[in-house]
Amino acid sequence: MLDVRKLRLLRELAHRGTIAAVATANAYTPSAVSQQLTGLEREAGAALLTRTGRRVELTPAGRVLVAHAEEVLAALERATAAVAATRTGLTGPLRIGAFPTAMRTLLPPALVAVASAHPGLELSVEELDPAAVPPKLRDGTLDVALVHDYDLVPIEADPSLETSPLRDETIFVAARSALTLPECRDHQWILATPGTLCHAMTIRVCGAAGFTPRARHHADDFATVLAFVAAGQGVALVPELAADPLPAGVVLTPLPTRRRTRLAYRAGTATHPAVAAFAAALVSG
Q: Which residues form the HTH lysR-type domain (predicted)?
């Protein structure tokens, strides 16, 4: 019989790439993770990893087992959701992740609605970039999260997660006057932090227009970005949701690029009463 806890570690290795990263994420030592995975190999009766020095890669059998592990873990989530649905009233923690714009606009009314309808739920929120969401959902640090992606920066497929759409938005050039994107080639830019989806989006959108933006400032909060634009510190790309209120002196020019906001959760948890209640509050809000 295969141990579910060991299967989780194998799946995390497939996502994180190194035993050290898996150990850090699960508060284990690397040797403990290695021992667990060695035990899983004995249970499976096949070599799951190939080790070359410090590098570890999945064997064909390892990749097959990871795919089945995703199905097993999703089935366990569905079973947990089904049991939760038999209880009277919703209680316990609901850990929510959200990107900064959603924290300010979409999340407050949803939190009020859920807290009012289900006072037994213990709501907690963490602000983070969508790029940081998948590992936190997989390891149970979060139960649900608001994420977004862009036309030119789509969400990478992750079999351990599911998403449902919430809204689409237009992306705008924000400047002191009406400017098309090619006209911004020689301007200084206000960019998000490298490594975030918003930074990648701006780089790719500008690259598709034939230039690389020259960064003058880096800021992740769009209210700050727009304030900098109003102060004549540069131009920026901002989504529709972030443009209200719009500072005086800032002009928005729409682009064909779109941002899509989604609700993300672990595969198999869509029918969990707490997740469903939160999803319904977001849609109705």
A: 2-59
> What SS3 state is found at 181?
coil
Q: Which CATH code is given to the segment(s) 169-258?
A: 3.40.190.10
Report the C-alpha gap between 65 and 158 in whole angstroms: 16
Domain boundaries of the chain, sorted by first residue: 4-84, 92-166+261-284, 169-258
Residues 6+ apart with CB under 8 A from 150: 171, 197, 201, 204, 205, 257, 258, 259, 260
Residue pair 202/171 in contact by the 8 Å Cβ criterion: no
Instruction: Give the helix/strand (H/E) hosting 220.
Output: none
CA 137 to chain centre: 9
Side chain identity at 114, as an amino acid letter? V
Token pair 């096949």 is found at 46
CA 70 – CA 84 distance, rounded (Å): 21
**Which CATH topology does 92-166+261-284 take?**
D-Maltodextrin-Binding Protein; domain 2 (3.40.190)
pLDDT of residue 153: 87
Q: By the 8 A CB rule, do 219 and 225 touch?
A: yes
Phi, psi of 148, rounded to the nearest 5 degrees: -145, 160
CATH architecture of 4-84: Orthogonal Bundle (1.10)
| Per-residue model confidence as pLDDT tens digits over 20-47 | 989 988 888 989 999 999 999 999 999 9
Q: 4-84 and 169-258 share one CATH topology?
A: no
Q: What is the pLDDT of residues 180-190, one digit of tens each?
A: 999 999 999 99
